[in-house]
Specification:
By secondary structure, the protein is an alpha+beta fold. It is 29% helix and 26% strand. A hairpin with a 7-residue loop joins strand 3 and strand 4. The radius of gyration is 13 Å and the shape is elongated.
Length: 92
Amino acid sequence: MKRSALILAAIAFSSSGFAAGVDSRAYTYNGLHTLVEATRFVFINYPSFMDFVVANSSYCTSGEMIGLRSVPTSDTRECPVNYCRKRPSTTN
């Protein structure tokens, strides 16, 4: 639910180009992290990622947790970023 609200807010309050996502390769490592901190979440429009990057776990739903993935930037092949991933199921 929270994630859907974030997506709708991004589309409503962003320019159409920004709402469509950003190519992480257009930013430096520091530039991408600065963007995420400033906007709190960003959709990365990179073929092998295509997901939201978030500033912290408060942007994840209760069934999700922070995970780390890497995206390429203009100055590095692997820039670690936070994203929300499903919590592992716990069965006893």
